[in-house]
Amino acid sequence: MTPATIGRCQVLGEIGRGGMATVYRAYDREADREVVIKVLPRELLHDPTFRARFQREIKAVTALEHPAIVPLYDSGEDAGQPFMVMRLMTGGSLADRLRHGPLTLAQAARIISHLATALDAAHVAGSIHRDIKPDNVLFDHTDQPYLADFGIVSVMQTATILTRSGVIGTPEYMAPELTRPGGLSPLMDVYALGAMLFEMLSGRPPYHADTPIGALIAHVTEPIPDVRMLQPALPADIQRVLEQALAKDPQERYQSAGALAGDLAAVAANTSLPTLKVAVSVAQVTVTL
Q1: Are 75 and 54 in contact (CB under 8 A)?
Q2: What is the predicted pLDDT for the residue at 282?
Q3: Domain CATH code at residue 249
Q4: How far apart are CA 15 and CA 153, in angstroms?
């Protein structure tokens, strides 16, 4: 049942729900603006672990304040139910846009450039997004892209099963090293950004399977597909960018999201790429779990 109010906000309707939260569109009467409210479902309130994680998400989002991360306005509890109030992103998601077909190279480069600044800032701060995908890229009314759902995935423990499939994150965008111990690092986000870029340019993720485990295995065993087989008009250098972004070995991958975005911008500007080299690493930062 949809509540009439949450905190000081009047609930206007439910936007969606998942395994970890229910999301509502609401009106903040004091601030005189529409917002999004994310609520911990009542069926999870009995488990102190989920409540603690929700609180850590609030702290993580607050600590990661950045122009390309959806901002947190307020948080609290209503009738014992934790909630957070965030900016309403009226421009839809990247997933919405991709349902209408691939983006142009220039469009993709602009979006990746914005998101890369947020990811690099988060990595320097010791956080990992862990679920970069088109559903978690939202646009505001000026068409600027933002990363969403940043906090909860950056503070989870790797051994904890959090989804119905038993997989943390979304398999179509998960780095190969996550199939073995010690694979958690900022470079998994760089890989996911590369997988999302492939989808932005081609209309589909680089790997797909009928099961989550099958998709993970594909990331490990299958060669990196040539995006020009799906979009022949793309320049040859874009495949070089994707091959480094999706390198199976993390040390052969771009070592920052900004390095990926920089080469992508050069290709979009029709500038020839030099021999691609691994950038200065940000993967050695201490990760906050």
Answers
A1: no
A2: 45
A3: 1.10.510.10
A4: 20
Query: Given pLDDT bands bounded at 50, 70 and 90, which one contains residue 167?
Result: low
What phi-psi label fits residue 182: left (phi over 0), alpha (psi between -120 and 50 degrees) or beta? left
248 is in an annotated binding site: no
Quick check: is 237 catalytic? no
Q: Is residue 277 included in any domain, yes or no?
A: no
Distance CA(39)–CA(36), nearest Å, equals: 10
- How much helix, strand and coil, in percent to the nearest 5, is found in the chain? 40, 15, 45
Tokens of 242: 């994707």
155 and 191 share a domain? yes
What CATH number has the domain bearing residue 76?
A: 3.30.200.20
pLDDT tens digits for range 97-143: 999 999 999 999 999 999 999 999 999 988 899 899 999 999 999 99
Q: Which of 28, 120, 131, 149 is catalytic?
A: 131
- Could you list the residue range(s) of the whole structural domain that residue 151 is in? 94-268
pTM of the model: 0.87
